[in-house]
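Lecture 7 notes: from sequence to structure.
We start with the chain below.
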Amino acid sequence: DKDKKDKDKKDKDKKDKDKDKKDKDKKTKTPKEKPTKKPTNKNTPTKPTKSPTRAKTDKPTRSKTDKPTRKPTKDTRKPTRKPTRKPTKKPSSDRCGSVDKKKPKSKRSGESYQFKLEKEDAKCTDKNKNTYQYGQFDKVKEFSDCADKCVKDVSSSVLDNFRGYEWDCKSRECRCLYDGGTLDSRSSDRYDRTDRNKDGNGPIKNTEKKKDRYC
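Predicted structure tokens for the same chain:
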């Protein structure tokens, strides 16, 4: 009986030890599981990361792309206006217009004088290419007006040796042409200017190049 009691006591002690061991295991497991759950909640701050990314990407992209594209369009308008105005003015001042009449007429004391345009951009010369002495009238507007000046506004004594005339479309100078020795101090008073040091003689047969002059 004693042995049986001792055995029962041992078994009981063994059970108690096993129970204590299980209780210890339970206590050691529960603290390990709790700390693992808490750090996971602290390390997942999803909300703070979303708000700064939206604020940064929206504002700078709109302000940078809109402002530079508006400024260059204003600059492109200015150069197109300046070059187009200047070239149109130059050609008009460089060239004279054509003559009003290519075959003008004039009359004096019932006698008619017929002229024809020999050549543009040229001076009149004789068969030997000599230029004529002339009496000049200033501020003559048209080619045909020069014909009237050389017939009506001169001394009648010079008309027998009168060969033709030249008109400058730019300076508006009208030159009545005569054979050498025709003009003298008396007949020269009718003109604004004279040149008697030329040797041209006889009808006009040739021309010499001279810009803006009409023979």
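Points to note: Residues 46-94 form the longest helix (49 residues). The chain has a mean pLDDT of 77.
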